């Protein structure tokens, strides 16, 4: 009888130690759903783990697919942090109750008010510009100072772009609606699509490659892809970078359209404290510099230099005013685009 009691006590102690070990292990991890490939955020993960001892587990995939997975898994999801792109997606995650607000003085101090959700459901981490690219041997960049300059008839049949209904383009058109209204935006979309060299196809990097090959003279694409071409393992991509130039569009009223990459705490988060620490870290000056140097994106911190490389592209006058309002105009933007050949 004493043996049975002793064995029972030992079993209970072992189970208790096992639970404590498992709990301690959980206290040292955070699970992240990321639209970025792991290799692109590896420098950030390494720095965070070295600083905190917290292990970061990453599941990467397309932004919309990760969102769908969060919806399907519900409270059973193991994800603690959602890293995604675009204010509209983050707003959708909020409306679907997939994320929850974060009470953090650090985040409030590090992220400007117009680059975070008013109720603290999400926070911007970096800015990406919808830029203009041109063939250096054919185009005078002074003729392409703004988005409006793309409408000039001199560019008839000379512009390449991915499909107009892609998220990046819809967000840009939504910003036009916010600033200029429906009629101005319809006119812009119509004349822009009239100047296209071919039926839109491929991604942003494909548009730059087309300019380098001579299929068209001008392209519109996100700025960070330009940086990726510069250090690609493919020589042809590095040559593309050398052949094309970048313009960060300006106009008398607004600067360059920017969208964001952002982070949020999932509604199902099990490692809440670690998740908040990770998101806070991503907004620190050290992490913001890593973003700029590794991912070729602009920091959300106004007082952090972009870095010598992306600063060489020109001075950024980021149009951050519409960011919080873009979700309101996405549907309208899609309707306008659908009425064109874009």
- Counting helices, strands and paired strands, the structural category is alpha/beta
Per DSSP, the total helix count is 14
Number of strands: 11
The average pLDDT is 90
Largest sheet: 11 strands, mixed
How many whole angstroms does the radius of gyration measure? 23 Å
SSE order, one letter for each helix or strand: HEHEHEHEHEEHHHEHHEEHHEHEH
Query: Share of helix among residues?
Result: 40-55%
| Low-confidence spans | 1-25
Strand content: 15-25%
Instruction: Tell me which oligomeric state these chains represent.
Output: single chain
Spatial separation of the terminal alpha carbons: 82 Å
Shape: globular
Give the helix/strand layout.
Layout: H1 2-26, E1 29-34, H2 38-52, E2 55-60, H3 63-73, E3 81-85, H4 87-95, E4 99-100, H5 105-110, E5 122-135, E6 159-160, H6 167-180, H7 182-194, H8 204-213, E7 218-222, H9 223-230, H10 235-243, E8 244-247, E9 256-266, H11 272-282, H12 285-295, E10 298-299, H13 308-311, E11 318-319, H14 326-338
Helix pairs in contact: 2-12, 4-14, 6-7, 6-14, 8-10, 9-10
Describe this structure in words.
With about 350 residues, the chain is of the alpha/beta class. The protein has 14 helices and 11 strands. The protein has helices at about 1-25, 40-50, 65-75, 85-95, 105-110, 165-180, 180-195, 205-215, 225-230, 235-245, 270-280, 285-295, 310, 325-340, and strands at about 30-35, 55-60, 80-85, 100, 120-135, 160, 220, 245, 255-265, 300, 320. Strands 1, 2, 3, 4, 5, 6, 7, 8, 9, 10 and 11 form an 11-stranded mixed beta sheet that branches. α4 (about 85-95) packs across α14, α6 (about 165-180) crosses α7 (about 180-195) and α6 crosses α14 (about 325-340). The chain is globular, with a radius of gyration of 23 Å. The chain starts with a helix and ends with a helix. Residues about 1-25 have low confidence and may be disordered.
């Amino acid at each position: 009888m004493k043996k049975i009691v002793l064995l029972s006590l030992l079993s209970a102690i072992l189970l208790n130690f096992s639970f404590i070990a498992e709990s301690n292990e959980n206290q040292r991890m955070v699970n992240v759903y990321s639209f970025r490939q792991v290799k692109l955020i590896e420098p950030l993960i390494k720095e965070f783990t070295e600083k905190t001892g917290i292990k970061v587990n990453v599941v990467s995939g397309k932004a919309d697919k990760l969102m769908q997975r969060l919806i399907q898994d519900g409270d059973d999801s193991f994800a603690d942090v959602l890293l995604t792109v675009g204010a509209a997606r983050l707003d959708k995650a909020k409306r679907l109750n997939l994320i929850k607000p974060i009470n953090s003085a650090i985040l409030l101090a590090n992220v400007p008010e117009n680059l975070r959700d008013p109720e603290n459901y999400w926070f911007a981490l970096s800015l990406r510009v919808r830029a203009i690219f041109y063939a250096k041997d054919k185009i005078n960049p002074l003729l392409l100072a703004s988005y409006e300059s793309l409408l000039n008839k001199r560019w008839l049949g000379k512009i390449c772009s991915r499909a107009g209904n892609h998220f990046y383009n819809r967000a840009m058109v939504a910003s036009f609606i916010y600033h200029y209204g429906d009629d101005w935006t319809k006119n812009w979309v119509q004349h822009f699509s009239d100047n296209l060299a071919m039926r839109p196809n491929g991604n942003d990097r494909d548009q730059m490659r087309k300019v380098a090959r001579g299929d068209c003279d001008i392209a519109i694409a996100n700025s960070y892809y330009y940086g990726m071409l510069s250090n690609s393992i493919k020589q042809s991509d590095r040559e593309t970078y050398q052949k094309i130039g970048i313009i960060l569009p300006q106009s008398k009223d607004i600067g360059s359209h920017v969208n964001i990459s952002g982070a949020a705490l999932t509604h199902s988060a099990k490692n809440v404290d670690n998740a908040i620490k990770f998101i806070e870290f991503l907004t620190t000056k050290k992490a913001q510099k890593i973003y700029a140097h590794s991912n070729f994106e602009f920091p959300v911190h106004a007082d952090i230099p972009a870095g010598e490389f992306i600063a060489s592209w020109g001075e950024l006058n980021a149009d951050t005013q519409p960011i919080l309002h873009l979700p309101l105009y996405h549907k309208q933007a899609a309707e306008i685009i659908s009425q064109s050949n874009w």
